[in-house]
UniProtKB/TrEMBL annotation, chain A:
Top-rank lineage group of the source organism: Bacteria
PROSITE patterns, A to Z: ABC_TM1
Record InterPro entries: BPD_transp_1_N (IPR045621), MetI-like (IPR000515), MetI-like_sf (IPR035906)
First-listed, main subcellular location of the protein, grouped into a coarse class: membrane
Keyword ATP-binding: no
Stated name of the protein: ABC transporter permease
Entry-linked PANTHER family: DIPEPTIDE TRANSPORT SYSTEM PERMEASE PROTEIN DPPB-RELATED
Domain ABC transmembrane type-1: 95-300
Keywords for this protein: Cell membrane, Membrane, Transmembrane, Transmembrane helix, Transport
Membrane topology: Multi-pass membrane protein
Protein family membership: Belongs to the binding-protein-dependent transport system permease family.
Membrane spanning residue stretches: 12-30, 101-120, 132-158, 178-197, 235-261, 281-304
Length: 314, 578
């Protein structure tokens, strides 16, 4: 396990390094002078020169590159060209807001997906199963922005049970926060939950007819325990791997959902930064998202390994 | 026959049968119609008695035994009666059935790797069986699990109790399975092909264990098997099934001495007889591990030109994953097969016998040594040259169901090597397919049929026809009959022998079954852990093995004769003890 963890951590570090380098290069590959582009048409030569200095654009390429990593290691992600605020001041909050959406959605999607998948598998070819399979087709085939927009139209405007409100942090007003959390989370959950339901159903259909489940029955275990401790438990292995992949999709969908519901997460930060060519911010957001995806995959792999004792030796 | 047993049972109620199956029929719903799998099956199992239910695949023996505990999968319909003492098991409520499952009637399954849950330790799985019938603490159940593992002869039970199934060997896994089955001191143990997935020496150990436990616990055993040797070894009484019906029931001695039913006679005749038990161990001086190389060197030199296959110091190592040591499957093996000769390569699973076969055809890369087919070293050949050389040899695989493309007609499968190697155009290939099908005793007009329309034995004939399409000099047959029923195996082996006689190809015949090898092979090579243990003329090696390993291998194979088998078992025990 330790060896596995070490190799995976080393891999993660390498991936982050690669992403960082690519981001660094991308900013410099943009045609024209980033400083001038950032400041816009009407900037004076002095302003440009000053910006070039703050962006370290006059240093040699190599020293820029090492400077970039050096500052990054000190936790300095640069300063926004628009607001002149250090990126580190805004980023954590935005990141937190996005992660809240992702993690809450994931938790619900996994719990509900596994539960529904189990129901569908144990009632295979019965009405409950048919309903769940049909329902999951909607979740899988409808794009996030369609579901999001529909939900917004119905529950915010047609039947305004969850009207749009100003974003409030949970410590300011937990109730309002929960209210505004509902629609984005439901939108994000729909697709992931459908995928996990399907995965669990098919994996369990397989394990339900597995030899070891028959053995469990022959021991005299109660049917509920046979299903939970044996059929479902072994079905979780493929489900866990699929969930890791699903989580990456979920992070992608969050960008859309945040925009639809005006959720002040990473995506609105990124959108405005791209619109205003705020390179340090773009750079920081891309790096942060990449770090999360890498971390998520690492955790996913660890969970899969923890679930399957055979992975230890393989 | 069962009515006689019942009558006897009624007279002495105390000694009556523990398990009574009466006019049991099981139907499965296939495409909306009820298809019978078992018809009017009746038999009894007396207290402490070992009853064997034998038959070939599709005979309904497994379905009958699974019905006892209501474990038949899918949509099955049961009729008739299954009684445990006086309790009717068919239609019994879930809770009542649960109190019998595992506690009073326990099961042992065929393949312990899949029958045990891979994500739990064996200790946990045994403890679970104990705790679902008794109020025992976790620690108490664990202690009992260790006790049970000790009882079934697993070494270091305190450590093994925390092992996962994949960390145990096949034999140990089956022992753990047995430990679980006896955890509730059941009155009846149903063992469904308990040794089929195991090597012959491990099988002998497990059968020994089952017999010992059965005597200790006084449990009745219903053993389901297709292996007449196992029957002769363990059973008191035998029930023979064919196509869902009981055709004969008799005490084991009578069944083997005077089988009454035509089918039983055929079944017994089909079993390839393992070689007779090896004579007393040779004197110490005789026990040379490998035949003297020098005297053979001359003969070899003469045979050099005529050798169909010459393997010299072959080494095969499977590479390990990044930063890990690889696994060496074959250590310096040398073999020669003369033209037109059959060499039987025997050994237990993991001995490297299949790897050698794969290395010869180039499916596994030799990491050392050389493989010469008809004088050409194939290990160093480039892809294109190797392809040009491939028609010289071909391969017959173990599972004909998996090695024929299900979407191709069998004619297309047989013609493929001809067309791929441009040995024939379409019309010529067509004619050749017809010819080949007739050679393997299948009607030529079957060329347009698909594999699923054929039985297992017929499919393997197609596999042989395909291998022979290019008239190879050398055939590599990797366990070609081990997936087949005995009676089917017998006909395929006869066909194989006739073809070999007629066409004169050389053959590397890989098998774990000494009886099959003795029937076919001129020479035998015995492998153990990737090393050649013994090599020589078949009769000599099997009748007078030089090494303990081969001797144990020969003695472990059960013979379908209760009297001989008892003697064999005694001999095997002595060897195992030594």
């Amino acid at each position: 396990m330790r060896r596995f963890l070490l190799t995976r951590l080393a891999q993660a570090a390498l991936q982050l390094f690669a992403v960082g380098s690519i981001v660094f290069l991308l900013v410099r590959l943009i045609p024209g002078d980033p400083a001038r582009a950032a400041l816009g048409e009407g900037a004076t030569e002095e302003q440009v020169a000053q910006t070039r200095e703050t962006m370290h654009l006059d240093d040699s390429f190599v020293s820029q590159y090492f400077g970039f990593w050096g500052r990054l290691f000190q936790g300095d992600l640069g300063t926004s060209l628009i607001s002149s605020r250090p990126v580190m001041q805004d980023l954590p909050d935005r990141l937190g807001n996005s992660l809240e959406l992702v993690l809450v959605s994931l938790l619900i999607a996994v719990t509900l997906g596994v539960l529904l998948g189990r129901v569908a598998a144990t009632r295979a070819d019965k009405p409950a199963d048919h309903a769940l399979v049909a329902g999951s087709i909607f979740g899988i085939s409808l794009p996030v922005f369609v579901i999001g927009t529909l939900l917004l139209m119905v529950f915010a405007f047609l039947v305004p049970v969850l009207p749009p409100q100003r974003f409030t942090t949970p410590w300011e007003d937990p109730v309002t926060h929960l209210q505004i959390l509902v629609l984005p989370v439901v939108t994000l959950t729909a697709a992931s939950c459908a995928v996990i339901t399907r995965m669990t159903r098919s994996a369990m259909l397989e394990t339900l007819s597995a030899d070891h489940v028959r053995t469990a029955r022959s021991k005299g275990l109660a049917e509920q325990r046979v299903i939970r401790d044996h059929a479902l438990r072994t079905a979780l292995l493929p489900v866990a791997s699929a969930t890791t992949v699903e989580l990456t999709t979920l992070i992608g969908s969050t960008v859309l959902v945040e925009t639809i519901f005006g959720w002040p997460g990473m995506s609105s930060l990124l959108m405005s930064a791209v619109g205003q060519r705020d390179y340090p911010v773009i750079q920081a957001v891309v790096l942060a998202v990449a770090a999360i995806v890498i971390l998520v995959n690492l955790v996913g792999d660890l969970v899969v390994r923890a679930l399957d004792p055979r992975a230890e030796e393989a | 026959m069962s009515t006689a047993a019942e009558a006897a049972g009624e007279k002495a109620a105390a000694a009556g049968p523990v398990l009574t199956v009466e006019r049991l029929s099981v139907d499965f719903r296939v495409a909306g119609e009820w298809t019978p799998a078992v018809r009017d099956v009746s038999f009894t199992v007396g207290r402490g008695e070992v009853v064997a239910l034998v038959g070939e695949s599709g005979s309904g023996k497994s379905v009958s035994s699974m019905s006892v505990l209501g474990l038949v999968a899918g949509s099955a319909r049961h009729r008739g009666s299954i009684r445990f003492h006086d309790t009717e098991l068919l239609g019994l409520g879930h809770e009542a059935l649960r109190s019998i499952r595992g506690k009073r009637i326990a099961m042992i399954f065929q393949e312990p790797m899949t029958a045990l849950n891979p994500v739990y330790t064996v200790g946990r799985q045994i403890a679970e069986a104990i705790r679902c019938h008794e109020q025992v603490s976790r620690a108490g159940a664990r202690a009992r699990a260790i006790e049970l593992l000790t009882k079934v002869g697993i070494p270091e039970p305190e450590r093994r109790v925390d092992s996962y199934p994949h960390q145990l060997s096949g034999g140990q896994r089956q022992r753990a399975m047995i430990a679980m089955a006896i955890s509730g001191n059941p009155e009846v143990i149903i063992a469904d092909e308990p040794t089929t997935a195991l090597d012959v020496t491990v099988q002998a150990e497990i059968l020994d264990l089952l017999r010992g436990l059965q005597q200790d616990l006084g449990s009745a055993v219903l053993i389901i098997t297709h292996d007449m040797g196992v029957v002769a070894d363990l059973a008191d009484r035998v029930v023979v099934m064919k196509q869902g019906e009981v055709v004969e029931e008799a005490p084991v001695g009578r069944l083997f001495a005077a089988p009454r039913h035509e089918y039983t006679r055929r079944l017994l005749a089909a079993v390839p007889k393992p070689p007779p038990p090896p004579a007393t161990p040779p004197l110490p001086g005789e026990a040379a591990p490998v035949p003297a190389a020098e005297s053979q060197a001359e003969a070899d030199a003469a045979a050099e030109k005529r050798a169909a296959l010459r393997v010299r110091d072959l080494e095969v190592e499977y590479p390990g994953r990044l930063g890990r040591k690889g696994f060496k499957a074959v250590h310096g093996v040398s073999l020669t097969i003369g033209k037109g000769e059959v060499l039987g390569l025997v050994g237990e699973s993991g001995s490297g016998k299949s790897t050698i076969g794969r290395a010869v055809v180039g499916l596994a890369r030799a990491t050392g040594g050389s493989v010469e087919v008809c004088g050409t070293d194939v290990t160093g050949l480039s892809g294109r040259r190797l392809r040009a050389f491939r028609p010289t040899y071909s391969m017959v695989f173990q599972d004909p169901g998996a090695s024929l493309n299900p979407r191709w007609s069998i004619g297309a499968s047989i013609a493929a090597p001809l067309l791929v190697n441009r040995a024939a155009d379409r019309t010529a290939a067509h004619a050749r397919v017809a010819e080949l099908l007739e050679q393997v005793e299948l009607p030529a007009r079957w060329a347009s049929r698909f594999p699923h329309e054929l039985s297992g034995g017929q499919r393997q004939r197609v596999g042989i026809a395909r291998a022979l399409a290019l008239e190879p000099e050398l055939l590599i047959a990797d366990e070609p009959t081990s997936a087949l029923d005995v009676s089917v195996q017998a006909t395929v082996l006869r066909l194989f022998r006739e073809l070999q006689d007629r066409m004169g190809f050389a053959c590397l015949f890989i098998s774990h079954d000494l009886g099959v090898v003795e029937l076919l092979a001129h020479e035998v090579a015995v492998l153990r852990n990737g090393r050649l243990v013994e090599h020589g003329p078949a009769r000599e090696v099997l009748a007078r093995p030089r090494t303990d390993y081969t001797r144990r291998l020969v003695a472990a194979a059960p013979v379908p004769d209760p009297v001989q088998q008892a003697e064999r078992r005694r001999l095997w025990r002595e060897m195992a003890a030594a």
